[in-house]
Amino acid sequence: MDRIDFGRKYIHLKGPVKLRLDVRSMSVTAIFLAAVLALGLFSLMVGTLKLSIVEVFSAFSGELTGLKRTVVIDWRLPRVIAAIVFGAGLAISGAIFQSITRNPLGSPDILGFTSGSYTGALVVMLVIKSMSFTTIAFGSLIGGFATAIIIYLFAFRNGTQGFRLIIVGIAISTVLGSINSMLLLQSKAEVALTAGAWGVGSLNGIDWYHVLPGILLVLVLLILAVIMNRPLREMELGKDASKSHGVHFERTQFLLILIAVALTAVATAIMGPVTFVALAAPQIALRFTNTAESLAPTAAVGAFVLLSADVLAQRMIPGMILPVGVLTLSLGGLYLVWLLFHQARSTV
């Protein structure tokens, strides 16, 4: 017997700012945020130095001093916060690109923006021969934005169509992959090894000095993404329909691409290229909520995916801390195969 859909449940808030909140999306967001909180506390407690939850909260309140407080506040907390914020940023970036391209394969990993950031970092490390964290991060940002400009110029023709953007992005990504390999092969072994390790993507050794500027910038970009969410949904109706609703299509599309590229470039500059979070998180959130109306579930899922991957990477092999990018690449590859298989079956 077929079920009759009488519509989704919403909560309407009236006041200076009127809001319509989808109950299912709010529930999914709350569940994933609770999971992120629990996982974050677990990550602060376990490790070489095991702590109780009471000791963790004592470190927050300032009652706990010495080595234990340093471990919680200065060593573990930056890693947890970075995983949460950058995971949310990568997920929102993927959601924007998937909405613009109208394709679940639309993500900065597939479109080449992550490869561009890696190329920028490699140029700094292998050509300029600088191993400064600040210089590498700056090179990664420049590489990401330069790649975005190139892809946008090649894909733009009376507006940027989703399919053309994906094809051009894949082509540019392939070229950049070859350039990256050439740079690594022509460098000294020890320098190439360091650069290759950075290219896996990792949160190992991260601290407040390195991560705080990136976190603040990503939070600002997330706010901008939320502000642009309504025109993003209007654009999904098509160019003519969105223009009839007062949306300047080309300008809005350019701003959204700029926000999405910036989210990816900043996260990549701090962690290195962590792949497939941007690809998988929006689709996972969509399957749980059955709507892409809100970006909140996507951000919560992205935070959970990256944080859980990092926690697992730290404890998968006893005595060894794997880069989080190794795990996301492995699991993401399996997800990509499943997604392609699912897409092929749905078109038959």
UniProtKB/TrEMBL annotation:
<feature type="transmembrane region" description="Helical">
    <location>
        <begin position="80"/>
        <end position="98"/>
    </location>
</feature>
<feature type="transmembrane region" description="Helical">
    <location>
        <begin position="320"/>
        <end position="341"/>
    </location>
</feature>
<comment type="similarity">
    <text>Belongs to the binding-protein-dependent transport system permease family. FecCD subfamily.</text>
</comment>
<feature type="transmembrane region" description="Helical">
    <location>
        <begin position="208"/>
        <end position="227"/>
    </location>
</feature>
<dbReference type="InterPro" id="IPR000522">
    <property type="entry name" value="ABC_transptr_permease_BtuC"/>
</dbReference>
<protein>
    <submittedName>
        <fullName>Iron complex transport system permease protein</fullName>
    </submittedName>
</protein>
<feature type="transmembrane region" description="Helical">
    <location>
        <begin position="254"/>
        <end position="282"/>
    </location>
</feature>
<keyword id="KW-0812">Transmembrane</keyword>
<feature type="transmembrane region" description="Helical">
    <location>
        <begin position="163"/>
        <end position="185"/>
    </location>
</feature>
<dbReference type="InterPro" id="IPR037294">
    <property type="entry name" value="ABC_BtuC-like"/>
</dbReference>
<feature type="transmembrane region" description="Helical">
    <location>
        <begin position="110"/>
        <end position="128"/>
    </location>
</feature>
<keyword id="KW-1003">Cell membrane</keyword>
<feature type="transmembrane region" description="Helical">
    <location>
        <begin position="134"/>
        <end position="156"/>
    </location>
</feature>
<feature type="transmembrane region" description="Helical">
    <location>
        <begin position="21"/>
        <end position="42"/>
    </location>
</feature>
<keyword id="KW-1133">Transmembrane helix</keyword>
<keyword id="KW-0472">Membrane</keyword>
<keyword id="KW-0813">Transport</keyword>
<dbReference type="Pfam" id="PF01032">
    <property type="entry name" value="FecCD"/>
</dbReference>
